[in-house]
Amino acid sequence: MSAANKRARTDATTTTSDVNLIAQLVDVEGTPAGPELDLPPDVGVKELQSLLRELLRASATDEDDDRATLPYAFYVDGEEVTGDLATTIAERKISVEQVLKIVFQPQSVFRVRAVTRCSAAIAGHAEAVLSVAFSSDGKNLASGSGDSTIRLWNLDSQAPKFTLKGHTNWVLCIAWSSDNVFLASGGMDSTVRLWDPTTGEARGGPLKGHKKHVTALAWEPAHVAYPVVRFCSASADGSVRVWDAVRRVCLFTMSAHTKAIASVKWGGEGLIYTASRDTTIFVWDATDGKVVRQLKGHAHWVNSLALSTEYALRTGPYDHTGKKPESDAQAKAQALQRYKAATGGKPERLISGSDDFTMFMWEPSTSKIPLQRLTGHQQLINHVLFSPDGRYFASASFDKGVKLWDGHSGKFIHSFRGHVGAVYQLAWSADSRLLMSASKDSTMKVWDPRLKKLKEDLPGHADEVYAVDWSPIGNKAASGGKDKMLRLWMH
After folding, report:
1. How does pLDDT run across 91-140, given as a tens digit for each residue?
2. What would the pLDDT profile of 387-423 be if each residue is shown by its tens digit?
3. pLDDT surpasses 80 at 461
4. Which residue has the higher pLDDT, 163 or 9?
5. Hey, what domains does the chain have and what are their CATH numbers?
6. Residue 183: per-residue pLDDT
7. What's the confidence (pLDDT) of residue 72?
8. Percent of the chain whose pLDDT exceeds 70
9. What pLDDT, on a 0 to 100 scale, did the predictor assign at position 14?
């Protein structure tokens, strides 16, 4: 930092520390927690936490309202307050002549440690590993490969558990039901298969109907129906099929896209979202497959979709320790409670990432007009993903960059630079404090969104890393790629 910059920052800090600040604590939607406050500029996170608790207790209308007991993070102009207010104001060059809006957001009550080392490099697949996915309770791991098999791995012994054979061509996608009863897979052979994760046995033969390869899978959320029975498969033939996993029948087919579908998400509001190479996104009614609306705006293929509630949908009835209630009724109720907490009473937000270098933020249950158009990437966008708390989302691109965005406003926050090849996939830690990226450059990297810096560099793969996932219970991550190896990562 230059002497002039240092002097300017010192002058700004001195100026703000000379006078009290008129501030107001507001939630992420802008709703005030209480009246405007006269604060000394040396107020830090600890004092803000105490103030907020008093305000929330005073405004609580329900005895069960536990908001005052949660830990919170505080933000000014999109920047997290980590020291005192005066420092943040000086660094962001914020005027103190107006009421200072301090945004508060609940933090997770647990903390995930950054993965720092490869605990196991496991051979087994005969071709590239194309997908890796932890189960909702974080206790099981599956990988899909170009060798036509899916493998289930023992996370305790770090050895292969079952090899699932049946596909006759590349396995392109795998998906766990959020109650962990089923594992679904789709492949280049145009079929969908269902597996029993406890035995590794196939649950019947292939589910046929798609005319081209199966590109993406999504299960119905646990808070909508429990046990989880329905799921959907998307294909390069432009159609989506909704299946009953128990009866093994196709319930209905949704056909409106004119080209291959790249991504499908089953949302928590009774809607299914599909993104296609025809540049559009369709919103479907999950009960009968009718089109609700079409989302237009992209100029090229739409590659990736992300839902603000994705983590709650993925983990369903399981908490951050991997436990769930005993009865089905309690499990469904807990899944619903977790989903409602993830939405904050607001509609789900959807991000779409495209080959046109842009993203759009949508509120697809209410409108076909995008909330924001997000630019900044210099090449096609491979993957977009919300943090578990919905506070952020991240985007990965062929331009070798990872970008961080505000999950509520869509405002750009930061570019993470470090990869020297295209970035293929992202994974968030369960506490939303860390972000992992997998790249063509054969490395993975762990980023700290709060401090906006590289936390860990993870070399080890001998070639391009196609897939990465972080366990929902936080203690492990997994990656796979062109070198045919599955790697497990731990602290």
Report:
1. 777 777 788 889 888 777 678 888 999 999 999 899 999 999 999 999 99
2. 999 999 999 999 999 999 999 999 999 999 999 999 9
3. yes
4. 163
5. 3-106 (3.10.20.90), 117-490 (2.130.10.10)
6. 98
7. 85
8. 95
9. 40
Query: CB-based burial of residue 201 (10 Å sphere; 0-12 exposed, 13-18 middle, 19+ buried)?
Result: exposed
What does the block give as tokens for 479? 């990656």
